[in-house]
Design a protein that fits this description.
The protein is mainly alpha-helical. The chain is 68% helix and 1% strand. It has a domain of 367 residues: Hydantoin permease (Orthogonal Bundle). A two-stranded antiparallel sheet has the order 1-2.
Length: 586
Amino acid sequence: MDLTTLTYLAVGLSFALYIGIAVWAKASSTGEFYVAGKGVHPIANGMATAADWMSAASFISMAGLISFLGYGGSVYLMGWTGGYVLLAMLLAPYLRKYGKFTVPEFIGDRYYSKTARLVAVVCLIFISFTYVAGQMRGVGIVFSRFLEVDLLTGLIIGMGIVFVYAVLGGMKGITYTQVAQYCVLILAYTVPAVFIAMQLTGNPIPQIAFGSQLQGTDTYLLDRLNQVVTDLGFIEYTEGSKSTIDMFAITVALMVGTAGLPHVIVRFFTVPRVRDARSSAGYALLFIALLYTVAPAVGAMARYNLTATVQTGAIGSPDGNLTYEERPEWMKRWEATGLLSFEDKNGDGRIQYYNDQNADFQTQAAEWGWQGNELDVDRDIMVLANPEIAQLPNWVIALVAAGGIAAALSTAAGLLLVISSGISHDLLKGTITPGISEKTELMAGRIAVAVAILIAGYLGYNPPGFVAQVVAFAFGLAASSLFPVILMGIFSKKINREGAIAGMLSGLVFTMGYIILYKGVFIEPVIPNTPDNWLLGISPEGIGAVGMVLNFIVAFLISKVTAEPPDHIQHLVEDIRTPRVTAAAE
């Protein structure tokens, strides 16, 4: 069976499964629509949480980042997984014990302020739309390559599938759909990794193959990869290019940003008991680890295979390069998507792939007649293209396509529901029209999801210039605005509404302003984005860590010089943290 037919079959069967689950798990109340009736088993919730978090960024982009950044890409592994430790220990069980539907609702109640709730809604919507635009773009890319349809058609199909199970099933439908999507994406990620690990090292376990010797040699995979990339003018794969303080700041920003992301936090509102929230976080870490421990091996093997494809002879020699006419079929297919391109700068018909920014290597390259790097490979294609590069069976490639779509759709659905709850529950019922009935609120939630899907589809097809630039912005925003105010709301009785609002706004404005200045959001960058110009040597990707500290400081100082929270709020904080002994509560 040819690749296109297999891909349609794999993706079609997965879509049928998702829609079937949505029909079975149709939400009939606001409780089921927002938090799945608080009746999800911790193991199922752990799977759903893992799928919700492991978006197109994790499935498609993370190994690509590691592939090209090497050691520097480890910040994503440490930051994203470390965030779940913070979430499990500091937030999840207490928020579940509080028992509300949304993060803004908790913030509004804890700080006895509609203004605080509105600020939280604004943060939530910005973060969620930033993410969901990227997910829809990922859906379009996977469709355009594997189903051979144009980007718009792919987006419309993806929007239609999400519409059915998000609007119909709400959180209940999304939860059980995400369980199925986790199974699809984890198989799609690990099966090719097992094949390629076996192919390169003879060891079927990717995590072990990563540190094993290449088959038939005495050379370890990473040692050979280091030699290969340095021969082409790149830095060693196992050597970092970032400063220690920047690595630390980015890791902290990603960790804290993860713990503060609304679409992740809301998953822990769906379990029956407080202790189940902590168990869910533990299971989620386990399920996430199955992918995240494989990612470094996938990144390294993809980079090695890509270089071996282009360099048919001696690495870094003038006659060792693949000719353009002899390029393999996988390169031709990815060229059609525009995510891989070749420009014959010196007219010799061969593909020169090297680091033309390395001043030391430029002299040697010039002697060979090379006039610049000629191969442009989008790092986002590495996971998707890796099975094709390794010439794996067509069914494995089709499985990867289904997994990439599952990863993007699972997160898109969770984000859209968070947007819906922010608009219908926090904004409409919580502020504008508090007297509306449950039926009206449920209808408003479904309409909000439908409108959000249309906006997300538009952003996926016509991404604004800032979408790609503010991936770190979403984490920085969550880290500098929502995480501190939630943490202080749980563990400090003395932080009042004035302190919380001032803290959120100061962290938000500082982080936003820094990234606008250096990366250009809506405007051209004002300051060159180089380490010499960064504050304390911290890049825009890591500045959320500084914004978080600023948020804490401002909140504490303002709370010190203004009135303490009312007694009932202080008792509420004590009650959130104090274990209950009744069986019903636990």
